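Slack export, channel: ligand-projects

TW: morning all. Re-posting the request from yesterday since it got buried. We need the structure predicted with the small molecule present, not the apo form. The ligand is fe (ii) ion; the SMILES is in the block with the sequence. No rush, but it would help planning for next week.
GE: picking it up
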Amino acid sequence: MYGADVEQIAIQLNEDPQKLADFEARIARGEKIEPGDWMPAEYRRQLIRMISQHAHSEVVGMLPEGAWITKAPSLRRKLILLAKVQDEAGHGQYLYHAAETLGATREEMLDALLEGKAKYSSIFNYHTTTWADNGAIGWLVDGAAILNQTMLARCSYGPYSRAMVRICMEENFHRKQGQEMIILYSQGTPTQRAMVQDAITRWWWPTLMMFGPHDADSPNSGVLIRWGIKTRTNDELRQDFINQLVPDLQACGIVLPDPDLHYDEATGNWRTGAIDWDEFWAVLKGNGPANAERMAARRQAHADGYWVREAAAAYAVKNQNQ
Amino acid sequence: MVFQQEGPDQPVVHNGTVHAPDAELAMLNARDVFVRRPEAVALWVVPADAIFTQTQEELAKAEPADQAASELSDYYVFAKFSQQAQCRQVGQVQAGSPQAAVQAAIATFADKQPLWWWVFPASAVLKNESSEAEPMFSAARYKTYKDQAEYPVVTMMRALRDKGRLD
Amino acid sequence: MERARQYALSGYLIALADDELILGHRDSEWTGHAPILEEDIAFANLALDEIGHAKLWYELGADLLGQDKTTYPDRLVYFREPAQFRNMQLVELPKGDWAFSTLRQYLFDAFEALRLEALSQSSYTPLAEIAARIRTEELYHLRHSQAWVPRLGLGTEESHARMQAALDALWPYAQGLAAPLPGEQDLHAAGIVPSSAALFERWSGEVSQFLVEAGLQVELRSPLADMHRSSHSEHLPALIHDLQSVARLDPEAIW
Ligand SMILES: [Fe+2]
Ligand SMILES: [Fe+2]
Ligand SMILES: [Fe+2]
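GE: finished. pasting the full C-alpha cell output, ligand included:
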C-alpha cells in the first residue's frame, strides 16, 4: 500500500494531497513535526498508539523489578534498583505527556490500559523468579529497549523524540548496572553463577521477541517507516542486539539456550534458531505467565488511590474559592 | 508547565509538564520528576492556561492591542528560536494584557526573531525560594549510583576476555 | 574520643540507622503501587533518601568500631537477627493505606528535623557534618508531607476519616520518639547528642498544632507500655526475613 505515491495515499487516507505532500517533504528534510503542525490523522493515531503503549510499558515495567526492592541483597544494590524503578515511573510520566501533546489525556490512556484495551510490552508479562533476573532485565531488556529508543530519539515527532533523548541517557544506567551485576555474578560463587545462567536462559528468547514480529508480519511497520516514526525495521534492530550480546554473554561463560546459534562468517552476523512466535502471540493476547497479575496490580493501585486523587482535587477547589 | 534553570548563568528554559491539582503539588512533582539527577538550580511552575503563545504567523494577523486598557503588570517573556530548541527566557516586560505583552516583547527585543513567543504573568509563577534550593536540588548530587559512569562495564568485559585468553 | 564512648556512640548511630532503614523499606513498598504516578516517584525518593541516611549512619558507626566502612553496614543489615535491630516500632508497622504511610512519614520527619538540627551542632565533628548533609534532604521530606497532610486531612470526608484513623493508630507508637536511644544519657551529657525527651516536647507542640490545622483531632493517649527499642511487634521479623532473603542464600557471596 505504501509503495504507492502520495496522491494515492492521500485518497486512501482521505487527506488533502497537497498538505500530505508538504508534510512528507518536511519529514524528508529531517524537520521535526511539532504539536500545532498539520499532520495526517493516521500519523496522529499511530503516534498516540505507540507513545501510550510505550508509557504503559514503563509503568507496568515497574512491577517485575519492583517486587525485588525490599529483597535486594546489599544496600548498594537496593539503592540502584530503587533508583532504576523510579526512573521507569519518570519515563512513564514523560511519555504520557508526549502523548498528551497529540490530544490524548492521561486519564483516557490509563482507562484504556486498565480496561485491557491498550497494550504494553509483553516482556513484563514474564515473572521475575530470582534476584539475578534483575541483572538480566537490566542488561538484556533495557539493552534491547535502548536500541529501539535510540532509533525513536531520531523520530519525526518532536515531543516523542525529545522524551526519548532524555530517557536514553537514563536507560544507559539501567543497562550498565544490570551488565555489571551479571559479569560479577558470572565470576562469583557457584550459587551466583547458577542463578545468572538460569536468569539468562529464561530471559533470552523473550528479549529477542521484544523487537516485534519479523518485518514481513509487522502490520504497522510500513507507514511508521514512511513517516519517519521508525527509521529501522524490527529485524535490523534485533540483529544488532544479537550481535552485541552474544559475544559478551559468552565471555561471561554463559550458555545461551539455542543449539542453532552460530556465527555466519559471510555476513558477520550471529544467527539464532527460530523464534517461537506462537509464544509471542499468546503472551501478547494476554495468556503470558503474568498478564493477569500485572493488570491486577495496576488496577488495585488505581482503585486504592482514588480517594487520594479526589482529596487533592477537592482541596485545590476549596482553596481556590477562598 | 515546568521551567528550570540548569546552572547559575544559564537561562530558564521550558522543560516539561507535570499533572497536579495545585501549584504547591506541581512544584513538588516537578522536583521529583525532573530533578532525579543533578541538573537544576531553580524550578518554576506555571499553570498551562496562564501561558499565552503566539507564532510569527499569528502575529502578522494580530490586531494591535489596546495598551491603555488596563493596569500594567509584569510578564515573563519566553521564546522558541528553532524547532529543536527549548523555549527559553528572554526577559520581562510590563503590559496590560497577554497580547500587549507579546507586542511589548517584540518592541523590547527587536533583534530576536523567534518562531514562537510565550508570555505569562509573573504572578502566575511559583518559583522555589532560593533558601529552598539546597534541599530541593542537593540530594541528587549524592546519588552517584544513578550515573552510568559508575559502572565500568567496558573495562570489566575487557578484563574478562583477557583472562579467558590466559586460561 | 575514648573507647567506651566510641562504642556507645556507634550503638546510638546504629539505632538511628535502623530507623531510617526500616522506614525506607516501608516507603519503598509503594514503588509501582502509589495513588498517582508522581507519588510513585516521590515515595521512591523518600525511600532512597532514608536508606541513604541509614547507610551514612552505619558507616560512621562502623568507623567508630574500627570496622570496614564498605562491608560492615551490609553485615549489620543482612546478618543480624530481628531481635538485634534497634529501630522504634513506629517505623516497622506495615505500610497501611496511603494516609497511614504519609502521616507516619510526617510524624517521623518532623521529629528527625529537630534531631538533625541538634546533631548538626554536635561536639563530635564527623557526626555534625553528616547530620547537616542529611538535614538538607529532610527539609524537603517535610515539605512533601506538610503539603499532603492538610490536603488529605481537609480534602474529602473519606480522606479525613482515613487520616483520623491513621492518626489514632500511629499516635501511641509516635510516643516512642520520646524514649532515649541506646547510650543517650552519657552521650548527651558529653554534648554529643541531644536529649530525645527534650526534642519530644518541642515536637509534640509543633506537630499537634499542625495536625489540628489539618482538621485532625489529637487525643492524648497513654503510650504503649513498652517503648524500649529492643521490643518489637510481630511485623519486624517478617520484614527482616524479606529484607535478608537473598543475601542469606549465600553469605559468602559479594552481591
Ligand atoms: Fe525506561
Ligand atoms: Fe532520613
Ligand atoms: Fe525523612
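GE: first-pass observations. Chain A touches chain B at residues 31-32, 34, 36, 76, 79-80, 83, 86-87, 90, 93-94, 97, 100, 106, 158, 169-170, 172-173, 176-177, 179-180, 183-184, 187, 248, 251-252, 312-313, 315-316, 319 (CB under 8 Å). The first strand of chain A starts at residue 262 and ends at 264.
TW: perfect, thank you
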